[in-house]
Amino acid sequence: MAAPGSLPPSNPPLRQLAADYLAHAQTERRLAEGTLVNYRRDLDDLLQRAETLGAAQIESLHIRRWAAQLHAGGMSPRAIAARLSAWRSFFRWMGRLGFVAANPVQDVRAPKAAKPLPKALSVDQAVALAAYTPQETTSASHPHQAEPFATRSARAHAIAELLYSCGLRVSELTGLDVRASKTARGWIDWDAAEATVTGKGNKRRSVPIGRPALLALQQWLAVRSSLLRPEAEADAQAALFLGARGARLTPQRVWLELREHARAAGLDARVHPHMLRHSFASHVLQSSGDLRAVQELLGHSSIATTQVYTRLDFQHLAKVYDAAHPRARKKP
Does the annotation count 71 as an active-site position? Predict the structure, then answer.
């Protein structure tokens, strides 16, 4: 065997090396059969692309070109990364045996996967959800029958209105207190109609509360006292949103109640708190075009994080164009 970093006097054909490597992976590394099937497929692809090349002749420029061809052919970035990983392991093995002087796949990376767009409701859907007030007939199968319907209804309505009005994270919503104090992480300023919250990185910000949301919060306060127990701890005494047992409402409970609220309102989408945050950001940006203001309202430390909503805004504009521009209409 040649010393690492030097080439042996004669190199076996690349196809023979691939067969030897697969045997090594099966007998010595004891890889699962499914993994071996994937490796065979990935190495077969390499052999076809390097048909006229020996192992030592393959360079990084070849690998980059082949990765680009895979991408152009429609392969996903994740699948390309897996294929490059198999090739990288193969060349690493050949390097240990002295068949190649360097690993040409070592510094080659797959294309970055496009970040999925955040899911947002349409304006009509978001407004309908926020404005919806449950009717008592919709609660017959509700799991918390011990809790008065008026309490559940007011809480669900206030949560939906506040999430959409302010674009809060669910942790920011559940961290709200009724009023400011030295220990509060968030609170409602009723006179200024603002919610002050502590977000990621302990960054504090204040967000305006719309009039419908403020009214829904006041309706919730009118029934909140029915859940507050005399022996409740200080945290429960201060919390804006209380659960059936009189303790501060948890993020998990908000997820469940918002989903039930959306279902009762007739929305097919699997609504969750962050979807209303996305909807808030997208709709404010559509109306104002002020990306910096949306960044401040969301509490993003970098505007690059906020820029994803410009893609949602472009989708909205593209739909308007397709529906309205005479030259965009499809032929019958």
Answer: no
